[in-house]
Structure formats: C-alpha cells, structure tokens
Amino acid sequence: MKKNAADKEAVGSNAILELEQFLPYRLSVLSNTASRAIADLYERRYGLSIAEWRTMAVLGSYDGIAAREVAERTAMDKVAVSRALARLIADGRVRRRTAEHDKRQSVLGLTAKGWKVYAEVAPLALEHEKRLLAHLTVEERRWLAHILDRLWQAELEEIAK
Amino acid sequence: MKKNAADKEAVGSNAILELEQFLPYRLSVLSNTASRAIADLYERRYGLSIAEWRTMAVLGSYDGIAAREVAERTAMDKVAVSRALARLIADGRVRRRTAEHDKRQSVLGLTAKGWKVYAEVAPLALEHEKRLLAHLTVEERRWLAHILDRLWQAELEEIAK
DNA sequence: ATAAGATAGTTTCAATTGAAACCAATTGCA
DNA sequence: TGCAATTGGTTTCAATTGAAACTATCTTAT
Fold it and tell me: Å from A139 (CA) to C26 (C1')?
C-alpha cells in the first residue's frame, strides 16, 4: 500500500536492506515514540520516570513483592529497580520493610500517597493506549494482541533456550 | 488463551492496570529484547552501536544524503547522528565532504571499507529478522506488517498535528 | 558446624545520553 | 542591501545508564 522508501534510492544501488521495512527497527521506533509521549506526561505531571511508573504499576497489581520480582515483572534490571525504588521511597510513594523469613529481601508496597498517584496515572496510561489503538479496527487489534502474544512467547523460549 | 498475570494478584485489589497487558509496555519490552540481541552481535563482531549501524544502513540505501536526512530516516536526533558519524568517519567507514550548494550541509556516503562492513552486517540483520518472523505464520506476518504500517502512519500524523 | 556458593540489593565509576548553548552558513524580508 | 530568523551540525555539561564490585544474608554440601 505504502511504498515510501524508493523515492530517492539510487538505481542499481548496492543496498540489500531497507531500514524502513526492517522489523526490529520499526518496532523500536514505534515503541520509542509511543513510550516517549507517555513518559513526558508522567514526568511533567508527577515527576515519574518510566522505571518508577512501571515499578508502581506492578506494585499496584502485586502488593508485597520483593525488588527481585519487580525486576522480573517490569523487565528491568535490578540496578534500575533499586534506583527507582530509592526515589519512590524518598518521595513517600512506596514503603519498604525487610522480609522476616529472609532478611535480604524487602517487602514492597504502595503507600496511601502512592495509591493516590497510581489512581491518577493508571487511567491516563489506559487513555493513552486507547488513543493508540483507536487507529486500528477491531480485527486489527485482535491480531495485534495475538501476534504480540506469540512473539512474546517466542522470546521467552529464546531466553530459556 | 494465556492468562499469566492473575496468579498472585490479591483478591479485591485496587489494581486498575495490568502492566503485562499494556500495549506500550509490551511493545517496549519486545522491541528492546529484539534490539538488544542484535545490537550485541553488531557490537562484538564489528564494534558498531545501533546508531552507527542505522546510519550505515540508510547510507547504504541513500548515498550522498546529509546528516539531517540521516536523522530523519533513522528516527534519531541530530546529536546522535553527529556522534555516530564522527565515529564512523574516524573508523574510515563513512566519507564526508561538504555540499557545494550549501556549505552547512555534508554529503555522506559509505567508503569501500564501509560497504564491506555493510555487506556483512545487512545479511546478519535480515537473518535475525527472519528468525523472529519464523515464529509467525504467513497470515500473522502479513497482519503484523499491515498493522505496523497503520500505527506508523498514525504516529506520523500525530507528530504533524 | 562450616566453608563455598548463590541470591537480594546497593554502590561506584566510567560510558552514554539529552538539553541547551553554540557556530557557521543560508534564507526571508523590510 | 542588511539584519533577524532559520537551518545544519557540533560541543559542552549535567543527568542517566551499565557493568562490575561489594555487603549481607541465605543455602548447600560436606
């Protein structure tokens, strides 16, 4: 339908890869612009980085988990989680105590203040998602969800391999 | 089909957003893991960062363009392009002269050495893409391409708005 | 019981990145 | 013409990130 790349390409060029058509590139650009827009919003309105927001989001779903599990569920590394937590705790949005059965672990959760922020940001995020999806038909949306599931699954297997 | 999130969620929780199901998050994780794997390869084998590889890739398709156009076509900002170019030129993979009609602009292109690298890396990249797509059926692939086109287009309009 | 891993999480230091300021050349326009 | 605004590109400085080392605790195997 769209052939927006060929306009300027030299005839008989040595090109063997069209960046604009390359899946990892497209995913990356798409994902970055999508994240960027939303991140700016969190940042300006709530002083939340993406890492902090993700942390809050999983704590909203899984109360009482340890930092390690936050890392797993947000796909961030433990250093990023540690830093996000440090700021969230400093801001009084997350509370931490150490687990009784294992003093290395922490038991994390949103504070009342944290829940308040969560209750404001989550709808914004969902709103944003809706705006993105608004450009797709119902059928396209279903396929997208399905395809993401499959790729996701494939990646998990790749990692486990 | 897959309901992998509910295992631990507290009953009657206040959660209103499931990070694992959230489109921008899924895109981001997917894209990052996809890029990461490939980036490690470029880095180890050729000492190329993603920014440098992208720059080489567009120069492979559009010989003689200026840095500004590289930025446009790679979706990187001009600072990133400037730095990538500095390294590529230092490594002798890209050649730069200043445009005659406008002395601010440069006229960029791959050197022979650059083309050699390109001719090695591009097939690797395509190979990698193939491996990703191998997890999808033909129909799924067609939908994915189509959906990415639509989202891409939507984003362009968003920016232009 | 105890030493050798392994795990949770933090800190440190260097490398990367981003934002703003900057320089030089070009364009627009009074 | 000439001066303000714009554009192409680089530099600078601070903030962010990543990798490796580190502390503390726990587990395992002898």
Answer: 50
Closest residue of A to B9, CA-based? A62
According to the model, what pLDDT value does residue B81 have?
98
Q: Is the pLDDT of residue A2 over 60?
A: no
Instruction: Kindly report the length of chain A.
Output: 161
What's the Cα-to-Cα distance from A69 to each of A3, A5, A61, A130, B75, rounded to whole Å? 44, 43, 12, 28, 34
Q: Quick one: pLDDT at residue B13?
A: 81
Confidence of residue A125 (pLDDT cuts 50, 70, 90): very high
Number of other CB atoms surrounding residue A39 within 10 Å? 17
Q: Rounded CA gap, A31 and B58, in Å?
A: 20
Q: Nearest CA to CA, how far is B16 from chain A (Å)?
A: 7
pLDDT at B37: 86
How far is Cα B120 from Cα B104, in angstroms, rounded to an integer? Answer: 32
Alpha carbon B21 to chain centroid, angstroms: 24
Chain centroid to Cα B14, Å, comes to 37
**How far apart are the C-alpha atoms of B23 and B11, rounded to whole Å?**
24
